[in-house]
Write a structure and sequence with these properties.
The protein is of the alpha/beta class. The protein has helices spanning 19-26, 43-50, 70-80, 94-104, 160-178, 185-208, 213-232, 237-248, 253-269, 274-284, 289-299, 306-309, 315-325, 336-346; strands at 12-15, 32-37, 55-61, 87-92, 110-115, 126-131, 134-139, 147-150. 51% of the residues lie in helices and 13% in strands. Helix 8 crosses helix 13 (315-325) and helix 9 (253-269) runs antiparallel to helix 11. The longest helix is centred in the middle third of the chain and has 24 residues, at 185-208. The N and C termini lie far apart (45 Å). It binds 1,4-dihydronicotinamide adenine dinucleotide and the ligand O=C(O)/C=C\C(=O)CC(=O)O. Residues 166-347 form the Fe-containing alcohol dehydrogenase-like C-terminal domain.
Length: 347
């Protein structure tokens, strides 16, 4: 008998329906006022939402900045002051969703999310706000979205240099869930399912070289499960390293996740149990899954290195210092020289 704890969150997921049809069905009777958080790229859609029968007013805040600066939260808060908002509707990537999460902390509105990348933030109770160059990441169940809408046609025009790294960001959540100390049979099965969908989507993309609704559906499904497991179990070295390199050295979020993924999995490999190794091998279809991942990244034009992402070589020991100061469960021991070697090879 396996003994485990499993905490999950109440959220309604509407997968595969056009966002306008889905909103029409999900909005309560009467007239709802909506705070729409999403970039100006969505103005045409906002006009269509305004025309839905069950919509009262739509207040569109269109300034989105990665890592959610505190000043931006205050600016958006002022914009919404005095407006009776029933629903905060975020449409965009992790940055738009992050701003919506910060706003819902001071609001009685429900948080509804339409993700257009694969960050997975729409399925988590995690939020981050940055101030004076420092990003603070917390968990709070009040920021977990109430409803999530996945519309594969909406983000079909996503450029591949955004889609590919973002899909590897989702893969990182699933990979770390598979070896998380808190994992359990439910999270394990979910992680396998998510990885199979992401791999199928990425392999099709590497052949077809163009995003289709079918590929986007697979990637969105993998991202949905990726966000869910990110919320449900603790993450290890990979996420801490991405947090340090992204937050403290300002490297782009999804690209740093992409780069770290094979290097960190290699670092962990010998410390994974045989059962976990076999699980990875079965999912990725080869003896060394970290190699399979890197080869797939190269085929997709995402075989990045730390130098081109903007880190200077002298910053490697500084980054490792930050990592050594953090405490978190991880399969492989944190050994300073080994971590430096890992980042040197990623450089
Ligand atoms: N709280 C959580 O659970 C999580 C939070 N995050 C946070 O989310 C942020 C990163 O989110 P990402 O989604 O990677 O990037 P992002 O939200 O910063 O978007 C990157 C760029 O792509 C554009 N974009 C978004 N969707 C598009 C589409 N379909 N077509 C064309 N352009 C599009 C955006 O306007 C932006 O310019 C980071 O701050 C990260 O820390 C990421 C994962 C989980
Ligand atoms: O940094 C945040 O806003 C919160 C969590 C994440 O970004 C998770 C991740 O590293 O993808």
């Amino acid at each position: 008998m396996n003994l485990f704890n499993y905490k999950t969150h109440a959220v309604k997921v509407i997968f595969g329906k056009s966002i306008l049809d889905a909103l029409d069905e999900e909005l309560p009777e009467g007239k709802s006022n909506i705070a729409f958080i999403g970039s100006g790229r969505n103005s045409a859609l906002v006009e269509k939402i305004k025309n839905l029968e069950k919509v009262g007013g739509v207040f569109h805040f269109d300034k989105i900045i990665q890592h959610v600066p505190q000043d931006l939260v205050e600016e958006a808060g002022k914009f919404l002051e005095g407006k009776e908002v029933d629903i905060i509707l975020c449409l965009g990537g992790g940055s738009a969703i992050g701003l919506g999460k910060a706003l819902v902390l001071n609001s009685n509105a429900e948080l509804w999310v339409v993700p257009t990348t694969y960050s997975g933030s729409e399925m988590t109770n995690i939020y981050g706000i940055s101030q004076n160059g420092v990003k603070t990441v917390k968990r709070d169940d009040r920021v977990h979205p109430h409803k999530v809408f996945y519309d594969p046609y909406l983000s079909i025009g996503m450029p591949l240099d955004l889609a590919v790294p973002s899909a590897f960001n989702a893969m990182a959540h699933l990979v770390e869930a598979l070896y998380s100390r808190e994992s359990n049979p439910i999270v394990n099965s979910l992680a396998e399912l998510g990885l199979k969908n992401l791999l199928a989507g990425l392999r099709s993309l590497s052949q077809e070289k163009v995003m289709t609704a079918e590929i986007n559906e697979k990637l969105l499904f993998g991202a949905y499960i990726g966000g869910k497991v990110l919320c449900e179990v603790s993450m290890g070295l990979h996420h801490k390293a991405a947090h340090v390199l992204g937050g403290n050295f300002n490297l782009e979020h999804s690209k740093i996740h992409t780069l770290l993924l094979p290097f960190v999995l290699k670092y962990q490999w010998d410390f994974l149990t045989e059962g976990v190794q076999r699980n990875f091998q079965a999912i990725f279809g080869g003896p060394l899954p970290y190699q399979t991942i890197r080869e797939l990244q190269e085929k997709l034009g995402a075989g990045f290195n730390l130098r081109e992402l903007g880190l200077s070589r002298e910053d490697i020991p500084k980054a490792v210092d930050f990592l050594m100061q953090m405490t978190y469960p991880n399969p492989a021991p944190m050994i300073m020289d080994h971590l430096i070697l890992m980042l040197e090879s990623a450089y």
